[in-house]
Amino acid sequence: MRRHRRVKILATLGPASETYETIERLFLAGADVFRINMSHASHDVMRERVATIREIEKRRHRAIGVLVDLQGPKLRVGEFAQGGVDLKKGDRFVLDGKPEPGDATRVRLPHPEILRALEPGHAVLVDDGKVRLHVVETDEARAVAIVDVPGRISNRKGVSLPDTIIPMSAMTDKDRSDLEAALAVGVDWIAVSFVQRPEDIAEVRKIVRGRAGVLAKIEKPQAITRLDEIIEISDALMVARGDLGVEMPVEKVPGLQKRITRLARRFGKPVVVATQMLESMISSPVPTRAEVSDVATAVYEGADAVMLSAESASGQYPEEAVATMNRIAEETEGDPNFRAIIASQRGEPEATGADAIAEAARHVAETLDLKAICAWTSSGSTALRIARERPQPPVLALTPRRETARRLTIVWGVHPVVTKDASDIEDMARRAGKLANRATFSKEGDRIVVVAGLPFGTPGATNMLRIAFTGAES
Questions:
Q1: Among 127, 191, 321, 365, which is least packed by CB within 10 angstroms?
Q2: What's the domain count of the chain?
Q3: In 10 A of CB 29, how many CB atoms?
Q4: pTM (predicted TM-score)
Q5: 190 - beta bridge partners?
Q6: CATH of the domain at 361
Q7: pLDDT tens digits, 249-288
Q8: Which residues face 216 on adjacent strands?
Q9: Does a structural domain hold residue 342?
């Protein structure tokens, strides 16, 4: 099950992809990680899908990642007496805490803490920004706003507040329940929505306690202002372009995507580019040319993974969407310009022995045209360090821990293999060559570079590099 590309593919599961057969076809088409969106999945559905993925993993002898995406707080207006109202430009409209049904002059916003946080000048976006207002007057019980972009507001439509620091946790009671259920079945990644500050990630980490990787979804302007801190405390990032494009001017999103991707690589954290990548394939068997270019741009930028949302969850062509994304990635990485673009983004390694070894492994492997970099790793940190260098040869992460292998399925260029730990240096080199051959990255007599930490089994102790022959000569 070797992939002939470095970037990984996340596929969201949903009504169009809930059977064993469909999920297996998505995996065979190229999906490396499956996303379960808890906005639309019950605990029973989540457990069934995880069980299905684990069955496929066992049958196909390849680690498969599972990411559970927490819903986060959902800010919504209340209900209207007539089901909705049409607002005109310049209308004065009030958001308040009164329980009565709304009308053309007001509606309930059932979040008193938000009413207290709103200030004059703050923008209020309703229904994904289709209706836009700005606040002109506030007190603890209400906010008076003027309509800037007219339109219809109907019952329970979502509200976005791009200028407001919202004094509430990124975790709701539902999220805490979903998180515990996800950890109980052993998922590999937890995606945190509504992140505004590093404390939001710290709250989740206290609950997770290392049982899964914690991924911060960057979807709010408030997160951009503290991006470095959020990256530092997270295990991975997602550029959630859909929500970013609602709460910020859409023309700023491409630059933010590039900035987040490069920062994540500098910190050595995986980064996923998500939302509307092949949107037209929800209802069409082929994507637009612009969508193809969009996916290719993320690949050229060195993103660890690209994600499908509704395309694979509820679209008419889930398998075709994954296969198309796979072909785009392979073609892009085969472009003669690809290596030069990736190399130009490489930063200086940190002044640690582990990072120096990782950079040296890349340099040695590329200089000598070695077939693979084999990294013995318990926690996955060695493979992450090497992946940050974006080496030309593939990276085989050899680990005794199945949970580490699954977590590495989201990382650029890494092919995780579960195997017992090495007993000594000779065993390490011999079995690395054998496993590289078995995975078809090399053949007998080829040379590889082997990276490990001594003593064996010590997390984060990457301190050894060795060139070895594969096969009988190793």
A1: 127
A2: 3
A3: 20
A4: 0.94
A5: 68, 214
A6: 3.40.1380.20
A7: 999 999 999 999 999 999 999 999 999 999 999 999 999 9
A8: 192, 237
A9: no
